[in-house]
Amino acid sequence: MSNNAKASAFLPAWFTLLLSVTAFTAAFAVQNDVETEFRDFAQQGESHQLTGEITDILTTGGITYVEVDTGNLKVWAAGPVDDSLGRGDTISFSAAMPMQNFHSKSLDRDFPTVYFVKQFITDKAKSNIVAPSGQTGQSQAPQPRSLPTTAGTPGEVAAGGLLHDALLDGLNTQNKSLSDYKGMPLIINVWASWCGPCRAEMGSLERLAKRYNGKTFNIIGISTDDYRDKALAFIDQAALSFENYIDHELMLENMLGAKTIPLTVLVDADGRVLLKVRGSREWDSPEILKAISNVFQIKLI
Predict the structure, then answer these.
(1) Tell me: the pLDDT tens digits for 200-245?
(2) CB 49 within 8 A of CB 93
(3) Which of 20, 156, 192, 216 has the highest CB neighbour number within 10 Å of its CB?
(4) 210 and 95 fall within a common domain
């Protein structure tokens, strides 16, 4: 046995895992410079919102696109269909989830940058409150349920922790428990039908599933949609074969730490979180396959 082989034999398990995670991170770093810029820009946006006046509205494919004049520049945002919006309305939205160079197939239009949001906060949503002195003021607009913040989600299981068992409400499969997936490594993808980056990576996840799902590891999806029919329509449109479930009352979102989506969580056969990957990826690319192999400590053919 060579000296290098002898040294490798005595590497502690935690160090081997650290090397795997490092390799996974490195694979993502070299995949695409644009993705790196997207991650950096998203992190900057987590701490603030953009506010402005709606100058244009387009609705198609279950998504409402609004052009907003912030006073400094005009930007586009997209979210679930909202018929209450109109030109001239003042809205605010999170800047945490931009997607650059986005092409809308339904509109056949390219957007340099689109901010995908869970909910638009409008001036109509603000309610008046009466101050003790009898003067009237405006309360702060309510925060949408999954507005990203810099803090972790309530009850989040961090990397290294064991996921709690949970009931899963099936969309394209029967109801199951999270513990049903123990015994084999698991990839959990958290998405929503209105989320452009989620849509962008779903094709590569499906290709990954066709090659490895149920054989080397399992893949499941968790929809954060508020409406079941929206999630089902997207699953049908994307022709997804792997099992998908819908979240209720933020239970899975919070446990997995989905303060932004898409979020992909790699879990070992015992239910332990190994790594969390934020943002859209090409999941069947050679670099990502190598990274998955390193993290799960398995050989992918």
Answers:
(1) 999 999 999 999 999 999 999 999 999 999 999 999 999 999 999 9
(2) yes
(3) 192
(4) no
Main-chain phi, psi angles of 259, to 5 degrees: -75, -20
Residue with tokens 């979210």: 79
- Does 178 share its domain with 99? no
| Residue 122 and residue 198 share a domain | no
- Length of the chain, please? 301
Residue range(s) defining the domain that contains residue 75: 43-138
Query: Burial, 296: exposed, middle or buried (Cβ in 10 Å; 0-12, 13-18, 19+)?
Result: buried
Residue 131 one-letter amino acid: A
Specify the residue for token string 């792997």. 242
Per-residue CA distances from 43 to 38, 48, 96, 145, 194 (Å)? 9, 10, 7, 19, 20
